[in-house]
Amino acid sequence: MSLDRRETVRIFRERLGEAIAKAGTSRSRLAAEAGVDRSTLSQLLAPDNDRLPRADTVAAVARVLQVSLDWLLGLTTQQKSGAEILRESVQVALSSASAPSEENLQRWHQEAAGYKIRYVPATLPDLAKTEAVLQYEYSGYAAKRPSQAIAAATRKLAYTRTPDADFEICCSRQVLEVFAAGGGVWNGLAAAHRREQLDHMAALIDELYPRLRLFLFDGLAHYATPYTVFGPKRAALFLGEMYFVFNTTEHVRLLTEHFDRLIRAAVVQAHEAPAFLRALARESAA
């Protein structure tokens, strides 16, 4: 084992013991609250231990002890309280005409270059919307003007065409069916524009697959609020006129696992999506 790894193991062991003492808890109680075997915890604290714990074990222990992962693994010397960790791990990015968050979104995409981006849209994915649909949706929207929405969608689409792009989109099948039928917020959108949108999305996925993949789950069986996971860097939940942005490994991992469950539950797989969209377009023309 390398010297660096031995040093990391030593620091982790010492700081874990320090955090347990400061929390005033016992090993058995920590093991129970963190969902870790007591024998595993004893091994991690043993002076002759030379193995690093699994990532999920470190995350669980850090959560219970209210210390940061970086401090526990020796990546920083600053030990922070649970409140301080929460303040740093969650940020709020406003989305409005006067305080647009598109600059943040663009930066987050750039920082996630080379990693998979997982995206649950609020309705249809913006990057695949036609100008007619964007004009319709944002003509009366307080937080963003149509021109801003079109420019943002163009940038997102350009990103999916870069060599490093790896983009997965997952939404409910019912959202597309309601759109095709002109239901809900789309009841004022002309049928010709709806057909154009569905054909455009199908052509786009055909063009960019497998770099861009669309999966559809059954909205009667599963639910997902709009969010994006930018690789291992961060995850952002969209709440209408603001984003809640999570920067900690544990939060990102939890949302990644949620997205993966949606993918596993998909009733329309990525390679089937273009045909599904074209069928909806034909139905909307009938």
Write the layout of secondary structure elements.
Layout: H1 3-23, H2 27-34, H3 38-45, H4 55-65, H5 69-72, H6 82-89, E1 90-94, H7 102-111, E2 117-120, H8 131-138, H9 146-160, E3 167-172, H10 173-181, H11 191-208, E4 212-217, E5 227-230, E6 234-238, E7 242-246, H12 249-264, H13 273-285
Parallel strand pairs: 2-3, 3-4
Antiparallel strand pairs: 1-7, 2-5, 5-6, 6-7
Helix pairs in contact: 2-4, 7-9, 8-9, 10-13, 11-13
Entry keywords:
286 residues; 434 Repressor (Amino-terminal Domain); Endonuclease, Chain A; 2 domains; 7-stranded mixed sheet; 7 strands; 52% helix
Task: Give a nutshell description of this structure.
With 286 residues, the protein is an alpha/beta fold.
Task: Explain what this protein looks like in three dimensions.
The chain has helices spanning 3-23, 27-34, 38-45, 55-65, 69-72, 82-89, 102-111, 131-138, 146-160, 173-181, 191-208, 249-264, 273-285, and strands at residues 90-94, 117-120, 167-172, 212-217, 227-230, 234-238, 242-246. It is 52% helix and 12% strand. It has 13 helices and seven strands. A seven-stranded mixed β-sheet has the order 1-7-6-5-2-3-4, with helices on both faces. The relative contact order is 0.12. The protein has 286 residues and is an alpha/beta fold. The chain is elongated and about 70 Å long. It folds into two domains: 3-80, 434 Repressor (Amino-terminal Domain) (Orthogonal Bundle); 89-285, Endonuclease, Chain A (2-Layer Sandwich), CATH 3.30.870. Helix 7 (102-111) packs parallel to helix 9 and helix 11 (191-208) runs antiparallel to helix 13.
